[in-house]
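Request: How about a record?
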Amino acid sequence: MEKILDNRYYDLIIHNSMVPSFDSGNNITVLNETHSLLHIQKSSMDPCDLGRQPYDSFPFLFTLSSKVSMERSGISNIQRVPQLGLFGSGIIIGVVDTGIDYLHQAFRNQDGTTRILSIWDQTEGSGRPPNDFTFGSEYGENHINTALRSENPLSIVPTTDPYVHGTAITSVIAGSPDQQHSFTGVVPRSRLVVVKLKEAKKNLKDVFFVSENALCYQESDIMLGIRYLISVARRLSRPIVICIALGSSQGGHDGNSPLSIYLNHLTAMHKTNAVVASGNEGNKGRHYFHNCIEVPFEHSFDLNAGQYDKKFFMEIWPFPPGRISIQISSPTGETIGTISRPTSDCGKFTFSRSKTVVWINNILLEGDSGDHLILVRFDNPVPGVWNFKLRNMESAPFSFHCWLPSGDMISNETYFSLSDPDTTITAPGNARLPLTVTAYNQFDDTILEESGRGYTRSNQIAPDITAPGYRIPCALPGNEYGTITGTGAAAAHGSGAAAMVVEWGFCKGNLTTLTGNQVNRMIIRGAQRSHEMVYPNNIWGYGILDLYELFKRITVF
């Protein structure tokens, strides 16, 4: 079995400069120009493997950024600008998600042939993997058209979308019009390249104390999926807009993750753009912040642990780095002593009354950020209110952020008692150059409560733009239609808008040197802004996506 699929191996992200030190001939998988995967076999795995190996080498876990509903709706899509004739012709839309129902009429031409150029299904091994990749199956346009003409198409192209999300997101961007269902995608003449992600390895879930049943995907597989999208676009010499409707609350929320760095690199390039969701963590109670400026420079805060969350993790990011101690008290009144010595190793602590076990990594220098991280992982936490006390042993002011996992990796019963909705944008929404899109209710012009809020932990502006994200019409597997809500749906709108700008600039010859970053700046300039607000702000970014205003202004470029 390929190591990248084998649960006996950890997949660790390393810089390519380190590859010669570790390469034994078959233990490296290249991710991109800057990072690779190092596959390390372990005869037995335990929580303190995170400590023996650096925290930042473990891929982050990503969750979906929208909820799909089967409820039918006649909501019309965002209006295009007819006089410009921009429908995505000549543009590739790349989606890395849960897959696609290629049988759906939303992804076909009028003659019944497919609009999909290729699918890489990372979960399916009956076909051949793409060139320069070692797992999964690639199905090209000819394969798909042959399957569509067959009485049993899944016997020829056996890829589906069991979780619906990828089909819905792709259709919002680029679905073919259907008058009966009052549906059309933003750029229905674009072509599609889709990556169906395999689910995260069990050993990665285990090391981060995530339930085996939680639906999540690992950062390295997303990066490989993006690399595949780029390879197809380059082979066909076409511009591409990549939509990432996934998010992670891991890391320092400052845009330093390998995926964020990769997307920055791509968005700075000619004919390549990335649009990402801001995440749906704004109202989940999973972020806490405090600025400790008074002697004795210590602060206590509470976390409510839900009865269904038998394992979970919490990240604490203090600033500036120093000797920050942590003391933890359980709902049963037990307390573990002050832990202050920064170390990459993990300590194991047991609360005897409740049989709760806690692992703590007090990491003084975390990865590329060089910041301080305290990682706390709970096994069988007793439900109720847990108290944490942080203290700066150097008797100086400090501040700190805390984050819990995103999406369905924990239940809504686990939350901070005095949570802060700000600084809740998920990775890679904190990346500097991709277009980070948050969501609003287009019927009453209010922000969706769940929409992730900025700014980044380093006070960089995010989100960039706000787009419709409430009950957006979408395609669903089985030739059905429904609605999708969340920042993933908003990112899909943003991706369609970006594709229109690229078509205007590159395909129609108006500005053939456009980079993804320039496309995003043009979208930001055309945003609709209220006279009652100051922009940018951490909720709406630079304003609401306004295609009419965008193309009214676009002639000045």
In short: Residues 487-507 form the longest helix (21 residues). The chain is about 20% helix and 30% strand.
